[in-house]
From TrEMBL:
<dbReference type="Pfam" id="PF03022">
    <property type="entry name" value="MRJP"/>
</dbReference>
<keyword id="KW-0964">Secreted</keyword>
<keyword id="KW-0732">Signal</keyword>
<comment type="similarity">
    <text>Belongs to the major royal jelly protein family.</text>
</comment>
<feature type="signal peptide">
    <location>
        <begin position="1"/>
        <end position="19"/>
    </location>
</feature>
<dbReference type="InterPro" id="IPR017996">
    <property type="entry name" value="MRJP/yellow-related"/>
</dbReference>
<protein>
    <submittedName>
        <fullName>Uncharacterized protein</fullName>
    </submittedName>
</protein>
<dbReference type="InterPro" id="IPR011042">
    <property type="entry name" value="6-blade_b-propeller_TolB-like"/>
</dbReference>
<dbReference type="GO" id="GO:0005576">
    <property type="term" value="C:extracellular region"/>
</dbReference>
Length: 403
């Protein structure tokens, strides 16, 4: 055998056995640096600190812990990484600081505080964006602390540069606002698209106008035939609507294609941002053909998070039921034979909950084994929370998505 064949064989074996993504961070449980009130288990209960979202900027890796139980000291955090990966149980650092993340006594409202964050995002204008749902989703006891709000933080100074309350006529409360997608072509005229999985709506925020409006469409609803899940040996049925928006690169007309899908669905849909950005179009009685069905991704491909790499036109899809990240070149027809698996691991990639691409063309994926937490119990000796990272081209090498 020639050396090249041997090397290819080894490479193929490696990529089959180990997948294409590199294990980057893993936690058995989440701990914090400089924790106030150490030893107070009502302030910090390690078991309930479940990460839901991530974003990357320079030497900051953001990790968001949605407040779905008492005992979560800080919702928005960065993680300090020193040495070389994989990083094991690194402590979180409250961001921008402890004061802004600590709840008021008696959960009193306070617009200067961050209540609960799911999936933050970094834009190309050095800003961190996130929705604070304003809600404490405690079991059998949902506490609406304050209106949901959209935040922007300048990452060069760590200073809050914008905060916008989402009014009640747009959404009754913030519980369904689990992600935000930033349209950052123009740093001074930025738009944010926020899916509302509870109310089957898509919110559009214009930072420049300081206005928000709401699109309704039947494509935002789950498909009742595609809401059954079997994850980590646990079976359940969910009915979550529109969950994730992924933007194509900007087209010659100055607008992008916004891909979206409900969580309980195998289908992908699109709408042009030219439509979304136009507030007067939102209230039409019919949207005609402006919202389009793109195709089916394949059986059991429910996904809470997806993103398009603007250099390769490849979409990455976190498939929660398949314990997998898949890829699809958006220039091709959407069907399973035009897709590929980038990474699948039935013991370490269970329930990929968030996926994001940074400005250095790296893909980041977070899995948190959520059904085990909701319907059973975590094994606290296991690594329940994993982050993968890989350069986009390396992640796609050998897949059908680059061809
Ligand atoms: C899953 O990940 C574990 C830990 O990294 C690894 O040992 C195992 O080979 C992986 N399984 C597959 C099918 O890639
Ligand atoms: C919004 O759409 C309407 C109807 O097509 C159009 O008349 C109007 O110019 C659009 N507004 C903007 C800001 O593009
Ligand atoms: C991993 O789980 C998926 C979904 O249940 C299954 O289709 C696949 O065959 C499994 N892979 C391995 C290596 O067990």
């Amino acid at each position: 055998m020639s050396l090249i064949v041997k090397v290819c064989l080894i490479f193929l074996l490696c990529s089959v056995v180990n997948g294409k993504l590199t294990e980057y961070v893993k936690w058995q449980s989440i701990n914090y640096k400089n924790l106030p009130y150490p030893g107070d288990s009502s302030f910090y209960n390690p078991y309930v600190n479940v990460p839901f979202g991530l974003a990357h900027y320079g030497n900051k890796l953001f990790v968001a812990i949605a407040r779905r139980n008492p005992g979560i000291p800080s919702s928005l955090n960065v993680v300090e990484l020193t040495g070389s990966p994989p990083y094991i149980n690194p402590p979180l650092i409250s961001y921008p600081n402890w004061n802004m993340n600590m709840l008021n006594l008696g959960n009193q409202p306070n617009p200067a505080k961050i209540v609960s964050v799911y999936r933050p995002r970094v834009d190309r204008c050095d800003r961190l964006w996130f929705v604070d749902t304003g809600v404490l989703e405690y079991p059998n006891n949902q506490i609406n602390v304050q209106r949901p709000s959209i935040w922007a933080i300048d990452l060069k100074t760590d200073i809050v540069i914008g905060r916008f309350d989402i009014p009640e006529n747009i959404v009754p409360n913030g519980r369904g606002l689990a992600s935000i997608t930033i349209d950052d072509d123009d740093c001074a005229n930025t738009f944010a698209y926020i899916p509302d999985w509870m109310n089957n709506a898509l919110l559009v925020f214009s930072a420049q106008q300081g206005r928000i409006w709401r699109y309704n469409h039947n494509y935002f609803f789950f498909n009742p035939f595609e809401g059954d899940f079997d994850v980590d040996g646990l079976q359940f049925q969910w009915n979550d609507g529109i969950f994730s928006v992924a933007l194509s690169k900007t087209k010659p007309n100055g607008y992008r294609t916004a891909f979206f899908h409900p969580l309980g669905s195998f289908s992908e849909f699109t709408v042009s941002t030219e439509i979304l950005r136009n507030e007067t179009l939102a209230t039409r009685r019919t949207h005609g053909k402006d919202f389009k069905f793109v195709g089916h991704r394949g059986t059991n491909t429910q996904s809470g998070s997806h993103a398009v790499d603007l250099n390769t036109n490849v979409m990455f899809i976190a498939e929660m039921q398949n314990n997998a990240v898949s890829c699809w070149n958006i220039k091709k027809d959407l069907k399973r034979t035009n897709m590929d698996i980038v990474e699948q691991n039935n013991s370490t990639l269970i329930y990929p909950v968030d996926l994001t691409i940074d400005r250095e063309s790296s893909l980041y994926v977070l899995s948190n084994r959520l059904p085990r937490f909701i319907y059973d119990r975590y094994d606290t000796n296991a690594y329940n929370f994993n982050i993968w990272r890989e350069n986009i081209n390396a992640a796609l090498s050998g897949t059908t998505c680059l061809k």
